[in-house]
Amino acid sequence: MKIDKSLTTPLYNQIKAYLQEKIDSGKWEAGYRLAAERELAEQFNVSTITIKRAIHELVHDGYLHRQSGKGTFVIKKEEQDISKMVSLHNEREESAKHPHKLLSFKKVSAGSKLAKHLDIKPSDQVYKIIRLKIEDGSPAVIEYSFVPSITFPELSVEDIDDNLLYNIFTKKYGVELDKAKIYFSTALAYEYEKELLNVPKGEQLFVLERYTNSKQQDIIEYSKFILKENQAKYYLEVQL
Question: Per DSSP, which regions of the chain are E strands?
Fold first, then answer.
């Protein structure tokens, strides 16, 4: 294991590239345990601080996972269809399961910020719904959803129990959906996100904001989805 100390490329980046190549090539499969940091430092003839930096970046990028007292392991970074992660489509199968943990459900005044998002008056009432989407038994997405109560009167906890909002809009209320506009950004994990998504404080998260329009071009929903960025390579496939 040699690195070129004469290059301008930082040593930790060279080591990171070497380790990542082992993973990408399949030489180190999911579950492979890396040598101890001190041992790697000796093999590369660098400091343990340099090794820690390279490993930290690969952990952040979703290639490695640290287990306290056990070591550092390769994890499988799978591709995820982002439309399924945030339920961009209307799932019509009656038997389909959409596991969510309801964190909060209440009716509140929109206020100035939400009023702009939904094109309503600040005094208008909206349902504020906070849910945690579960994937393979683990928390994957924090969902903040806001819908005007005048459009969806008598919306209840039972309605949204493990159900997609789009299903409720179309099946219970007969609303015809037209389009959804999605904005992409990032944010850092604070204490709330840290606890819910089981990520370190300050971890970078992926954020999507969705605006849904009915056939009448009314904005019937504004949602914000906060996803763990390092768990997968997200993609959006468009049918042409």
Answer: 64-67, 71-74, 78-81, 100-109, 125-135, 138-148, 177-188, 204-214, 219-228, 232-235
Please give the pLDDT value at position 60.
Answer: 78
Contact 146, 223 (CB under 8 A): yes
Is the predicted pLDDT of residue 232 greater than 70, yes or no? no
Cβ atoms within 10 Å, residue 126: 26
| Interatomic CA distance for residues 52 and 217, integer angstroms | 52
Q: What whole-number distance in Å separates Cα of residue 49 and Cα of residue 149?
A: 55
Q: Write down all domains in the chain, each with its CATH number in brackets.
A: 11-76 (1.10.10.10), 79-235 (3.40.1410.10)
Query: What single-letter DSSP state applies at residue 23?
Result: H
Q: Is the pLDDT of residue 83 over 60?
A: yes
Residue 83's φ and ψ, nearest 5 degrees, are -65, -30
- Side-chain-side CA neighbours of 203 within 13 Å: the count stands at 25
Coil, strand or helix: which one is 215? coil
Q: Model's pTM, two decimal places?
A: 0.67
